[in-house]
Task: inverse folding
């Protein structure tokens, strides 16, 4: 049985990936510092799969702790989620973002190199494309100057991994996520936003639940079909499964390059108003919302061309926007 380290394995995408890894027959060891999640997620994973994953509470910035982990644990691959992810916060605290997102990545790769470990999967982001000139966005679209320190950590992170793969004969895949939403069908794991949600779906579900008074729709004058911005919303379970596909590609030595990167989205663009209408349909709730000005830094439209990911990873999305929003709503009701 192959053993896989999942850093940030108790977070939103990490926890869903741990479940899919266990379903696929992998042994999982989780590292998480619990800075943006709770230890209960571990029990919830166990109650879904019946398997209790090994867990280490480690802050990846603490080099000695990471060294000690790798000195005592042999793994066949690493899926690295642990990172800060709030775009706005990264503008206020850029050094925290570079220290955590870049520092941890470097430490992790150093230790993998020192222990002659291979097979690295990295959480990257469609933010690397900025507002792409052509839609849907292919992997060949140029990387645009990052709009935020957060986005920059993903671009720099990819570059560090690519150079490490060349220098140390390692193999890695970066997955460029579009907009992950939803929750596991068991409704035992999901997204736990701290404070006021910045992302659309948790803001919608909290508004429908009466926690927020009203949703502000940021911008109704975009050059899209209804004037609101368009994104590619992917069910988190479909996204989690892309990690298993990428890992298997590396473990089976099917990768054509030592560093590869793939778009992980549905290939379908949906406007904010379409998301609202679909949410109202699946929840039976009518949502309070108002149109306000554009949010700084937002782009008009982004959705993935998934042709290459579908072909090379033998992976495709299976779940609809309706299913994802219904799961997000059930998860909200459970909170
Ligand atoms: C979606 C749409 C908003 C909130 C995502 C990730 C981010 C980064 C990039 C990860 C936009 C609109 C939102 C609200 C609104 N990815 N909106 N009212 O901006 O696409 O960013 O991809 O690496 O971390 O979150 O996602 O969910 O914030 O916004 O109208 O209260 O909803 O303007 O058009 P975004 P989002």
Result:
């Amino acid at each position: 049985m192959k053993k896989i380290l999942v850093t940030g394995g108790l977070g939103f995408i990490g926890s869903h990936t741990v479940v899919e890894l266990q379903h696929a027959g992998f042994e999982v060891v989780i590292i998480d510092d619990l800075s943006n999640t709770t230890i209960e997620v571990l029990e919830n994973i166990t109650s879904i799969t019946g398997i209790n994953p090994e867990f280490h509470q480690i802050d990846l910035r603490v080099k000695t702790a990471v060294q000690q982990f790798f000195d005592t644990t042999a793994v066949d691959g690493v899926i690295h989620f642990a990172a800060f992810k709030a775009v706005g916060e990264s503008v206020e605290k850029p050094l925290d973002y570079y220290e955590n997102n870049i520092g941890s990545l470097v430490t992790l790769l150093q230790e993998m190199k020192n222990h002659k470990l291979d097979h690295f999967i990295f959480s990257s982001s469609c933010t690397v494309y900025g507002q792409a000139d052509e839609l849907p966005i292919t992997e060949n679209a140029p990387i645009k100057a990052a709009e935020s320190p957060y986005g920059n950590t993903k671009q720099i992170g990819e570059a560090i991994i690519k150079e490490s793969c060349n220098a140390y004969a390692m193999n890695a895949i970066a997955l460029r996520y579009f907009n992950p939403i939803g929750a596991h069908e068991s409704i035992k794991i999901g997204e736990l936003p701290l404070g006021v949600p910045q992302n659309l779906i948790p803001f919608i579900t909290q508004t429908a639940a009466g926690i927020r008074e009203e949703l502000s729709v940021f911008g109704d004058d975009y050059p899209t079909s209804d004037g609101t911005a368009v994104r590619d919303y992917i069910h988190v379970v479909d996204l989690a499964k892309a990690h298993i596909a990428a890992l298997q590609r590396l473990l089976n030595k099917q990768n054509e390059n030592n560093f590869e990167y793939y778009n992980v989205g549905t290939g379908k663009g949906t406007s904010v108003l379409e998301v609202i209408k679909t949410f109202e349909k699946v929840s039976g709730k009518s949502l309070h919302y108002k149109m306000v000005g554009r949010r700084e830094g937002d782009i008009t439209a982004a959705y993935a061309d998934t042709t290459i990911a579908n072909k090379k990873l033998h992976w495709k999305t299976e779940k609809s926007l309706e299913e994802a929003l219904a799961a997000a709503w059930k998860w909200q009701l459970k909170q």
Summary: The chain has a mean pLDDT of 97. The chain is about 40% helix and 15% strand.
